[in-house]
Amino acid sequence: MPPAFFLSGIKEISFSSAGFYLFIDNQPDNPCKQIVTYFTSESSMKTSDCTPSLNRRRFLATAATAAGAALATAGSSSARPSPSTGRQRNVLLIISDDHGQADSGCYGHPVLKTPNLDKLAGNGVRFTKAFTTVASCSASRSVIFTGLFNHTNGQFGHQHMPADLDTHDYVRGVASLLAEAGYRTGLVGKYHVGPDEVYGFDELISAEVGYQDVKALAGNRDVWNMARQAGQFFSRGKEQPFFLTVAYSDPHRDWKASNSIDFPHVDEVVYSPDDVVVPPFLPNSPECRAEMAQYYQSVSRLDKGVGFLMDELEKSGLAEDTLVIYISDNGIAMPGAKTTIYDPGVLMPMLLSCPELGLTGGTTCDAMISFTDLVPSILDWAGAEGPGYELPGRSFLPIAGQENPAGWDQVFCSHTFHEIQMYYPMRSIRTRKYKYILNLAHKLDYPFATDLFASETWQAILTRQEPMLGTRTVDAYIHRQREELYDLESDPGEVVNLADSPAQRAVLDNLRARLKAWQEDTKDPWLMKYKYE
Ligand SMILES: [Ca+2]
Predict the structure, then answer these.
(1) Is the dihedral of CA 94, 99, 101, 104 positive or negative?
(2) Is 152 among the domain residues?
(3) 442 neighbors 481 (Cβ within 8 angstroms)
(4) How many CB atoms lie within 10 A of CB 96?
(5) Is residue 406 part of a domain?
(6) Is 137 a catalytic residue?
(7) Is residue 203 domain-shared with residue 270, that is, in the same domain?
(8) β-bridge partners, 438
(9) Which chain residues have CB less than 5 Å from ligand 1, an ion?
(10) Cα 296 to ligand 1 centroid, rounded to whole Å
(11) Cα 135 to averaged position of ligand 1 atoms, centre (Å)
């Protein structure tokens, strides 16, 4: 990368794979709005207002990687072209934040209004058994982008301060791999992984634009503007295929504050606490109902964002060649879901839409999908090479059109930290009938994420000294046995622990052995506890 330099009226100059960027002018009425002039790789000069609204520090940190990728791949793309259009295949990965699987119309919710997610499902495939491997934001996103479990990739917990945990530097994120195949890559909104060199996005498009009262981590709720940024990304550099991630902060907590903001172009959908459908893992209390109504509103804002985003993709003329995947990173930010590896924490919405795959719209796929399968699937679609080390997942594209394909009947979870103070390592295997959880530090009290502890729902339980958290006892939630075994057919709420049941001994032994074999295959450092404890 050439050194950044400064000319009169020009703030900085940098390379990316899409061209040669000149940051010309910050606008005084909106410090995040930048007039940007850039040369594409075809050397035509273009001017764009308010885009690419890169986080300056991150842009400069990644520009060298991007420039190198652009030079390495110019004219030598290995990406697989579309057989029908001859154009190269794009990827749009949409990630919501703490959106539970049950909480949209297309997954059968009777109250929540999510017409745009429903439309996406209607145009493609709705997966009924897609699982994140961990119910924590940073950790889950690192799995989504690397295809490696956290105990392998090193992103053991939160990336932001004070945890400051980072992915191992030998790991290669999917954007980096796609760049080698000739892709230009970008991320709009929540990022929450590091270091930049591992993840390799050409453009980290700033969250602050249009929403400067809240910091980037929680500020990606200006969904209309995020769609606009995505549209501008689509329109740049159409000579290259793209990989764009659009990552919302909705419906993460901070509901009251975010719902009180009048976001431009977004018509609020407001819900009454009386209409809330309280899930079994939560208490049917006034506090819970009030919080859930706020959460519903946040889900509906997210849904409107998905609608704006899909409109931008249509307008770009690239929809025909674009694989669209919608997922959440983990379950709802409530006790009993987020940070746990019980199903409300890890069973995720996942929608896949792609005209070129020829999938029948409105169908379902019951395959048990792990988020470690996302990277292999995206690489499969793109015809791009893997990272040079083994990935534990496999592409689900060949079976996406089948309702119940054979051989997709187990997934694994690996959780170590949420926040840095919250060490509680857990490993699990889930089949269609059973879940086995190994709590590797079971003598510790189960730790609460700060926002879950502060929630009105949990504080009301503490204040009233209530013994139950939904159908589970508070004591069982906080004091866990070393092993948990649940029969999900007779006990979908995962409250009757069968680990000590003589009748289940053979099942327990079988799942123990499969879990340990998986830990060995994926080089889990916590294997040492079998030997030393
Ligand atoms: Ca999250």
Answers:
(1) negative
(2) no
(3) yes
(4) 29
(5) no
(6) yes
(7) yes
(8) 427, 483
(9) 97-98, 137, 329-330
(10) 16
(11) 7
Domain extent for 431: 415-532
The per-type count for the chain, helices as H runs and strands as E runs, is 16, 18
Could you identify the residue written with the tokens 């889930």? Answer: 430
Distance CA 169, CA 174 (A): 14
Digit-coded pLDDT (tens) for 18-29:
333 333 333 333
CB 419 within 8 A of CB 157: yes
In a domain, 395, yes or no: no
Asked if 451 contacts 333 with a C-beta cutoff of 8 angstroms, the reply is yes
Residue 30 lies in a domain: yes
**pLDDT for position 132:** 98
Calculate the alpha carbon distances from 193 to 125, 139, 409, 525 in Å: 28, 8, 29, 21
Long-range contacts of 514-520 (CB under 8 A, 24+ apart): 514/410, 514/429, 515/412, 515/427, 515/428, 515/429, 515/436, 515/438, 518/412, 518/429, 519/151, 519/427
Helices 374-382 and 137-146 pack at an angle, to 10 degrees, of 30
pLDDT for 46 equals: 32
How does residue 473 score in pLDDT terms, banded at 50, 70 and 90? very high
Same domain, 293 and 436: no
Residues 187 and 308 placed together within one structural domain of the fold: yes
Ligand 1: distance of its center to the CA of 350 in Å? Answer: 15
Distance 529 CA to ligand 1 centre (A): 29
Q: Which of 50, 106, 137, 354 is catalytic?
A: 137
User: CA dist 161 to 130, 165, 170, 192, 194, Å?
Assistant: 30, 8, 22, 11, 12
What is the distance, to the nearest Å, from the Cα of residue 533 to the centroid of all Cα atoms in its chain? Answer: 35
- Cα(160)–Cα(304) distance, integer angstroms: 28
Distance 136 CA to ligand 1 centre (A): 6
Distance CA 371, CA 376 (A): 10
Write the pLDDT tens digit of every residue in 239-291: 899 999 999 999 999 999 899 988 889 999 999 999 999 999 999 999 999 99
Q: State the CATH number of the domain containing residue 497.
A: 3.30.1120.10
Using the mean position of ligand 1's atoms as its centre, give its distance from the Cα of residue 330 in Å.
5
Alpha helices in 317-428 (DSSP H): 343-346, 374-382
